[in-house]
Prior knowledge:
Oligomer: single chain
Helix content: 55-70%
Number of strands: 0
Amino acid sequence: MTKESKRVNAIIDMTLYDNVMQQGYATITEAIIKGLERLLEPVNTNIPESFNSSNPELVMSLNNRIESLEEQLKVKDKQLENKDIQIENLTNTMQSQAINIHDMLNQKQISETTEKKKPFWKFW
């Protein structure tokens, strides 16, 4: 009794091909079949014994690390909020300075155009 099979084509990197062939597979087909079989194997969701709750020191250590990382995240969030506020304040300051400069330039132009010029024959 023969198994029904399907021909497939694949393009792989030469480095990967060389590494697979160095593993001792007779053909690349054998390696591909083995890889596809491993892909379809059920995922092992068993927690290793070292992570079991019977090891309270490890659990406590990991919990402490998690709490430390959460604190660091909170601090970083606060720093980001402060930076956002500082950037907003600088933007507002820059906008007000630009408006002041614009107003000063407009006033200078107005004052230059309103000055009366003396006739060219009057020297004093």
